[in-house]
Design a protein that fits this description.
The chain is mainly α. Helices cover about 90% and strands about 0% of the residues. The longest helix is centred in the middle third of the chain and has 140 residues.
């Protein structure tokens, strides 16, 4: 929450006032508590002093009764002593009362010491009362009026006075502190009361200046807006406070509503002029968004409608133009077609004559094809004889190959024999030299024979390959010759059929020539009708152009 907002400031003042009231209430409670505590301390002081005096009174009563009985022997004093000791019991009552009060340990130690001193006098008092009861008052007085008894009683009285003084001083100090605390509490209570009064004044001033006055201005401005005046003066400025936010909202509403009204007026003026291609720039918030949606829907629907009409007009315009052009083209085409039909009639006559001549040529071609077939049959027979001769050459080549293989074996054996002869010649020494030369010559001849046999073998292989290739070619040629014969027979049959067909086509062409003459008459009639259609299309195109011109005035 912004610190400048009225709610924050008002809450701050109220919270400060509540704190002041709370502090004042706490201080008031402290003051009341202090007064109650002061009263209790005073009562405790009085009660403690009373108990101490009662204790001292009990001690003095016992001392006085025992001394009087010792001095006079009067039974009355003895009874007073016993009544104090057994019935009144002032010292016991005082001690019991002191135990209930807030007696400090030091003070209680002093009381215990007093009790010890008092208990120390009891044997002396009992002995003195026993002597007094026997009539020995001098002895009894010597005991209760002696130095020991007197000094002990003085110590008891002195300690009792000290305890009373100490307790009174302690209680008085507590009372002084309570009075000071009470005074401080009352001072702060007064200050909190004054602060509360100031806060009340501040609330009144804040309500009058920060709340009431701006609300009155806002109320007046809202009345002006309710009457439709969006240009009235408004002296409040926008800030982060609640009233400032209200002022900002009013300023924004005035500017936005003014801008929306101006934009709506401009749009309506443009729509009145036929311009439906507009954009809505202002931000239409809340319920004003329905106005924006309505304008957008109107614009969209009108653009769609006018666009459709414009498109249809243009299509009609384009169609009418195309129709007009087509009609003109049709008229021109009809005239041209009429001329072409006349030319076609002439061509058909020429074709009729040409087809008659072709029929005669086809008959002659059939005769020539038949003769060629007989020649191909004779050539096929010769090709079969050539194939048989090549096969016989291939068989002879295989036999030559076998002979060459035998020669190679003989050369190999001869080479082996020459090697053995050379070995034997080496063993024979000088006697075998001539034999070694012969062996070398034999080996050389064997090598040359093997080489010649190898070359001959290669030649035979080449011959066999050539013969095989010749056989393959002869086979293919024979197959081709057979296919050519079949083709020639089929061609001869087809040429025969074609000759018959051409003869029939000559008759059909005569009928076609008569039909084309009828078509030429119809084309002349269509040419006249197309000229009339072209004239109507030109008039329709002029009307459609006028409608398109009207639609172009709308900007969609």
């Amino acid at each position: 929450m912004e610190k400048k907002s009225q709610s924050f400031q008002l809450k701050k003042i109220v919270s400060q006032s509540i704190i002041a009231v709370g502090v004042g209430a706490v201080l008031l409670l402290f003051s009341i508590g202090t007064s109650v505590l002061m009263s209790r301390v005073t009562d405790e002081e009085l009660e403690t002093t009373t108990y101490l005096n009662q204790y001292r009174l009990g001690s003095k009563t016992l001392t006085y009764a025992v001394q009087a009985y010792a001095a006079t022997g009067d039974q009355q004093y003895y009874d007073d002593y016993m009544r104090e000791l057994n019935e009144d019991k002032n010292r016991d009552v005082a001690l019991a009362g002191l135990k209930k009060n807030n007696v400090t340990k030091e003070e209680w130690d002093s009381m215990n010491q007093i009790a010890d001193f008092s208990n120390g006098l009891v044997p002396i008092e009992e002995e003195a009362m026993e002597l007094a009861g026997k009539g020995d008052t001098e002895g009894a007085k010597g005991l209760v009026f002696g130095e020991e008894y007197r000094s002990t009683t003085q110590q008891i009285n002195s300690l009792t006075d000290e305890v009373i003084t100490h307790i009174q001083k302690r209680i008085n100090d507590a009372k002084v502190k309570l009075r000071i605390f009470q005074g401080v509490v009352e001072l702060f209570y007064a200050l909190s009361f004054v602060y509360l009064i100031l806060q009340i004044v501040k609330i009144v001033k804040f309500s009058r200046e920060e709340l009431l006055a701006p609300i009155v201005k806002v109320s007046d401005q809202m009345l002006e807006l309710a009457e439709g005046d969006f240009h009235a003066d408004f002296d409040l400025e926008e800030d982060s406070s609640e009233v400032g936010k209200m002022a900002g909202a009013i300023i924004y509403m005035k500017s936005s509503v003014t801008a929306m009204i101006k934009e709506i007026s401009d749009i309506l003026e443009r729509m009145g002029s036929g311009d439906y291609n507009f954009e809505i720039c202002q931000e239409y918030v809340g319920e004003y968004g329905q106005i924006k949606e309505s304008f957008l829907k109107i614009s969209e629907k009108m653009r769609e409608t006018l666009g459709t009409i414009r498109e249809v007009s243009r299509q009609i315009d384009s169609g009418s133009e195309q129709l007009s052009c087509a009609a003109v083209d049709l008229a021109e085409g009809s005239q041209e077609q009429a001329g072409k039909i006349s030319d076609l009639v002439s061509l058909m006559n020429d074709m009729y004559k040409s087809m008659e001549h072709s029929a005669k040529e086809a008959a002659e071609t059939v005769e020539i094809s038949t003769n060629a077939g007989h020649v191909l049959e004779a050539g096929n027979a010769k090709m079969q004889e050539l194939k048989e001769a090549i096969s016989e050459i291939s068989s002879c080549s295989e036999e030559i190959g076998n002979i060459i293989s035998t020669i190679e074996d003989i050369a190999s054996q001869t080479n082996l024999l020459s090697l053995n002869a050379a070995i034997e010649a080496a063993r024979a020494g000088e006697a075998g030299k001539g034999f070694a030369i012969v062996a070398d010559q034999v080996k050389s001849l064997a090598d040359e024979s093997a080489k010649a046999a190898g070359e001959t073998d290669k030649l035979i292989e080449r011959t066999v390959m050539a013969v095989d290739k010749g056989i393959l070619i002869a086979d293919e040629t024979a197959v081709n010759m057979e296919e050519i014969m079949l083709g020639a027979k089929e061609a001869t049959g087809r040429m025969d059929k074609m000759s018959g067909i051409l003869t029939g086509d000559v008759q059909h062409m005569h009928q076609l020539n008569e039909n084309i003459m009828r078509i030429a008459e119809i084309v002349d009639s269509n040419s006249a009708a197309s000229q009339e259609t072209a004239a109507v299309s030109q008039e329709q195109k002029a009307q459609v152009e006028t409608m398109v011109g009207l639609m172009d005035k709308f900007n969609v």
